[in-house]
Amino acid sequence: GQESSNGSTGSTDSDTEQASVDIGMLKLTSSAPLFIALEKGYFEEEGIDAQVSWFEAAQPIAVATAGGDVDVGATGITASLYNMVAGGEELVIVADKGREQEGYSSTALLVHSDSDIETVEDLKDKKIGITQTGSTFHYMAGRLLEEHGLTSADVEMVPVNSIPGLMETLQSKQVDAVLLNEPNITMVLDEGYGKVITQVGDVIDYQTSGIFFSKSFAGDTEAATKFLKAYAKATQYYYDAVLTKENGEIVPGENYDEVIQIIAEYTDQEPAIIERGLPYMDPYGQLLAPDIQTQIDWYAKEELIAVPIDADEIVNTDLLDQAIKELE
Amino acid sequence: MSIVIENVEKTFIDSKKKEVTALKDINFTIEEEEFVVLVGPSGCGKSTLLNIVGGLLSPTSGSVYFEGIKESNPNLGIVFQEIALFPWRTVFENVVYGLQERGVSKKQQQEIGNHYIDMVGLTDFKDAYPKQLSGGMKQRAGIARALAVEPDLLLMDEPFSALDAQTRTLMQEELLTIWNRTKLSTLYVTHNIEEAVYLADRVIVLSRHPGQIKEIINIDLPKTGRNDEKYREQSSKYADEIWQLIRHDAEAALKE
Amino acid sequence: MSIVIENVEKTFIDSKKKEVTALKDINFTIEEEEFVVLVGPSGCGKSTLLNIVGGLLSPTSGSVYFEGIKESNPNLGIVFQEIALFPWRTVFENVVYGLQERGVSKKQQQEIGNHYIDMVGLTDFKDAYPKQLSGGMKQRAGIARALAVEPDLLLMDEPFSALDAQTRTLMQEELLTIWNRTKLSTLYVTHNIEEAVYLADRVIVLSRHPGQIKEIINIDLPKTGRNDEKYREQSSKYADEIWQLIRHDAEAALKE
Amino acid sequence: MEKQKQVITNRVAFLDKKVPFYTSFLGIAGILVLWEIVSRIGIVSPLFLPAPSNIVITGWEMLVSGEIYGNLTASLYRIVLGYAIGAACGILIGLIIGFFRTADAIGTPIVYAIYPIPKIALLPLFILWLGIGELSKVTIIALGVFFPVVINTFSGVKSVDPMLVKAAVTFGSNRINVIRKVILPGALPMIFAGLKLAAGTSLLLLVSAEMIAAQEGIGSMVLHYGNLMITSKLMVGVLILSLLGLIFNRALRWLENKLIPWKE
Amino acid sequence: MEKQKQVITNRVAFLDKKVPFYTSFLGIAGILVLWEIVSRIGIVSPLFLPAPSNIVITGWEMLVSGEIYGNLTASLYRIVLGYAIGAACGILIGLIIGFFRTADAIGTPIVYAIYPIPKIALLPLFILWLGIGELSKVTIIALGVFFPVVINTFSGVKSVDPMLVKAAVTFGSNRINVIRKVILPGALPMIFAGLKLAAGTSLLLLVSAEMIAAQEGIGSMVLHYGNLMITSKLMVGVLILSLLGLIFNRALRWLENKLIPWKE
Ligand SMILES: Nc1ncnc2c1ncn2[C@@H]1O[C@H](COP(=O)(O)OP(=O)(O)OP(=O)(O)O)[C@@H](O)[C@H]1O
Ligand SMILES: Nc1ncnc2c1ncn2[C@@H]1O[C@H](COP(=O)(O)OP(=O)(O)OP(=O)(O)O)[C@@H](O)[C@H]1O
Ligand SMILES: [Mg+2]
Ligand SMILES: [Mg+2]
């Protein structure tokens, strides 16, 4: 299910030069730069007529992008994405849309507050709740274990199919540990039934989600660059507003309230909740390109992708580099 | 008008893929207003022949035709052994089925339907479903359905064989009364020799393997009152004659 | 030894919770080696009475007993209208069922079983399941099963009513032949008046609502050869007499 | 010498044995009372087995709070739509392959090839094809309904007494009228048997699909409270599903009696 | 004057229409070939619809790698155990409530009260009670099998022709022998109908339970590859389940023919 709406609010003047671009995305905070670009008219400035298709789930966005139903997709990078590419679907990852970064809270490993587990090492022979096999949570759990000298074979990964399910099973102690992202972590901590063992970003750098282009849109270098110029402007705006640090502490930037307000509007959520779950993004929207190959290698090792692929096949940083160059 | 059965032969392929001749060299004519009864042992091909005449089976060779009839599409009325009333139709709806299919007007359906339901004495059960009727009543509804189309030829395949002996006797009497009012050309199949002698103008006796005409016997008795004391001996002679013709075959049939 | 039916009365509760008297004031005795036939219109209580005598139904009042018998547990053999062969047993296994239940030795089972299967002419079908038999053969197996227990009283409830007329005639003859060899005291229920006259030493005619004995008629004819020319008229007279007794009730039954 | 008398007694009297009418209530009532007591005096923790009274009260609260309403409408939407589509297609195709020999020869092997697949196994495939939204769930239910209905409709058509077809033709029906006036009503009882069979399957598929891939619906509600170990609310969900099953069955029976008044 | 002649022709000839024997193959073969072509020339991406040949090859690889073996044994263990327990209890209790009036009066309302619950809804409850291990899954399957079997066994006992019971008693059977020699064989065809019905349900429950709460088994394998979008392996799982259903059904039919040689 997807619904289309004219995303570019305000301006209705039809510039004949405008290139129409379909964007497929979810109503999630991690789509913030796109919301900002839409809201502040960055796309029109670059001569792009942005149309938004809202999706209910992540996977169909990648499918739609590969199939050319939308030109741009914005969603998480999962094993299924790599399997899609391995299966002959064509798309390219061009920009960052959220990652795990040291010093910024996003995804963390939690245990029940009564639990005697204190370190990742204590998880040996325990049950870890993840959403689905091959999901970003699965990957993070696996990598966390490996960074602490364990393997996925040392624990039992329990797929519970949803994020609310993760919170519920933790609360009723049906699993020993779960991975959770913000703002859910804060909710668990507030209710007091869970505690954080470690922040994923403190252990690994991880490109969780990205902006994808369909093959044909990526081939239209001019439009693609224009789009990324708008996107890069928006990420910078986002970074300056909500991610700037002073003395190691995040401080609200100049446009903090405006950005929170935009996100709250697009996601239909309370601003207070938004504030808790602002993911880290590169100031210029640049991908953590080498991490893609790391992910592919890990998934392949775990037999979660059928045919190993080469990261170069799906990563394209040139377009964004070009856009940034043009911006300067 | 008469119905001619000419050189009819019928072969079936049995379960072992062998060809079986069910009927051979069947030739006879049903005259206008004649009541012809087919008797014969089990499996001699009585039903097969009746179905061929009724247009429900194709003969392997030979043909069946009406002679000297004006309409281009002669009407047939069949009363089945299994009765075959439509369970989802009431007695009335069953009786007028043939009229509906011929596009007769609602009003006429009412008239004709009621007439024949009356004739078979089911007026009180007009709106009953077949499941609510006893065996005898069901068969009467079946007869009314066949009569309602005012057929040029009436075919009946052991209509009373599922009824108990007493009901059967009563129904035979009723059938004769009805027949005397309609005088339809009729081909009637039965196992029951007394019934054949009681009803028929002519009895055709079939033999088996293959079904062939063994004898054609004219019953020279008045059509009504054959049950009377005075005809009883003669009836009984006819019955005995037919039984002697069939007996051997019937015993053989029993051993199969 | 004789079987006495004494003041038997039976009431049922019908679907509308009303009490219905099915049988009333039934008194008669079946003498040793006597063949008694019950006739009557539909629903007069023939089956009810037979079931009471067979110990398959309790009378509301009155009783049924053997008189002058030595064994403490008299044997009964019943032949049912529905035949009621066990579908999961072969003909032989059906026939020896009663013997098995009495703990008769395997060897004797073989002997007695084969004897009666032979008597009814089913030797070739010993190992066939009921579904593989024709109606006539099934009923013969049912008779062999009842005979095999060498009963003190044989009960038969319309055993031939589901058979076609010709098979029925042949089976009646066979039954008489068998009966002449065994001379069992027998209570036989039928709708068919000719059959009653053909088989009975005594015919008990029941009337309906409630089922009461209307008349008891002794058939004064030799037990064999009643079909012969010379007895035909007399048989026919008996039949007519019985039919006159029943006719009115039978017509009423048909209208229900 | 006294004559010996051996009275014949009824040897099948045990078949007519009556039990007091209240025995039926006793069973169910007994279980409920026992259950209530066991939970009340704490032989079994109410966490594992909440008392019936507790379940009823919780159910009432959830009804008032509107929680049941939201989940129930989500579930009803899916099952009603899925069932309607599956049943309609099943009857239609069943009639077609039942009446046309060529369609039978081609269609029947295909139906029987797909039939043994437990339909829920196709859910991941449908999620791939149709997305995770309502469409994939509705499709699974429709598919689960389709097969029993198509097979029963087909057998229904085949089981129509050929005597009746012959009777209709004798009395002047053409092929269309044979289908309309004989085949269709004749197949109706079997079609309903299929519809009733499909009702149970559709409910099972609904719950499974909601547990595997849904945020809303009674199925996901049950799983949710299972995850949270809130047993009384879980039980309310089970109770609702069981009522749903009951109502579904009764509704079909009512419809059957309306449409087939002539059935014995 | 020429006499008019109206020949009577067969008006139900259409009932005997024959279709060439190869038509049956045509349907299935046609679909397979079309499917292969559509995937091969890329009208539909193999990601969504892998070619049949591709599925077979993938299946072979998974067989060789031992992946199928592990999942299949896990599934087989659950379904065989669950089915056996459910069927055994169902037949036993069905016979008891069928033959003893008091047991009938008490038991039947209880059975019919629990019957309409879609059994999978009880999985979260059983996980609470019995843990997430094999026991809860086996119980769910056993329960799903129990109900159709118990109800069919019960009806089977009730549908035994009372004439046969009377015949047995007349020929000297006591009550035990009536049960052993009449009721049991008489109920057997209905019991098998129940067992066949339960086979489909048990497979559905197996897959659902494995999708909701298992790491191993064909059901969880299908979901796993669905999540990973490895469609060809998903299809292999579906294929295995469909074969499993087919084999299950055939095995029951074979057993039925062995045990009920006298069935018409
Ligand atoms: N469709 C068929 N296929 C093969 N053989 C058939 C078919 N219909 C009838 N026969 C055979 O043709 C012969 C005549 O059958 P038919 O039913 O006409 O006999 P019948 O005289 O009506 O017997 P009955 O008195 O038992 O009704 C029998 O040997 C029967 O087995
Ligand atoms: N179990 C029963 N409950 C209520 N009424 C019954 C029962 N059995 C028989 N009757 C009634 O008792 C009467 C006699 O029935 P019975 O079956 O003995 O008659 P019958 O003479 O054998 O009839 P038929 O010739 O049709 O076999 C009928 O009116 C019948 O409706
Ligand atoms: Mg015939
Ligand atoms: Mg009777």
Automatic annotation (TrEMBL), chains B, C:
Q: Which PROSITE patterns match?
A: ABC_TRANSPORTER_1, ABC_TRANSPORTER_2
Name the Gene Ontology molecular function terms of this record: ATP binding; ATP hydrolysis activity
Supply the source organism for this entry.
Answer: Oceanobacillus polygoni
Higher taxonomy? Bacteria, Bacillati, Bacillota, Bacilli, Bacillales
Q: Please give the name of this protein.
A: NitT/TauT family transport system ATP-binding protein
Domain ABC transporter positions = 3-233
Q: Does the keyword Transmembrane apply?
A: no
UniProt KW keywords:
ATP-binding, Nucleotide-binding, Translocase, Transport
Q: Which InterPro entries match?
A: AAA+_ATPase, ABC_transporter-like_ATP-bd, ABC_transporter-like_CS, ABC_transporter_ATP-bind, P-loop_NTPase
UniProtKB/TrEMBL annotation, chains D, E:
InterPro entries linked: MetI-like, MetI-like_sf
Question: What Gene Ontology cellular-component terms does the record carry?
Answer: plasma membrane
State its location(s): Cell membrane
State whether keyword Transport applies.
yes
What region holds the ABC transmembrane type-1 domain?
90-259
Q: Which Gene3D superfamilies match?
A: MetI-like
Arranged from A to Z, the UniProt key words for this protein are: Cell membrane, Membrane, Transmembrane, Transmembrane helix, Transport
Record Pfam families: BPD_transp_1 (PF00528)
Give membrane topology per the record. Answer: Multi-pass membrane protein
Q: Which CDD domains would you find in this protein's record?
A: TM_PBP2
Q: Where are the transmembrane segments?
A: 21-43, 79-100, 112-132, 138-157, 182-208, 228-248
Q: Which domain of life is it from?
A: Bacteria
- One GO-annotated biological process of the protein: alkanesulfonate transmembrane transport
User: PANTHER family of this UniProt entry?
Assistant: ALIPHATIC SULFONATES TRANSPORT PERMEASE PROTEIN SSUC-RELATED, ALKANE SULFONATE ABC TRANSPORTER-RELATED, MEMBRANE SUBUNIT
> What is the protein's given name?
NitT/TauT family transport system permease protein
Q: Which organism is it from?
A: Oceanobacillus polygoni
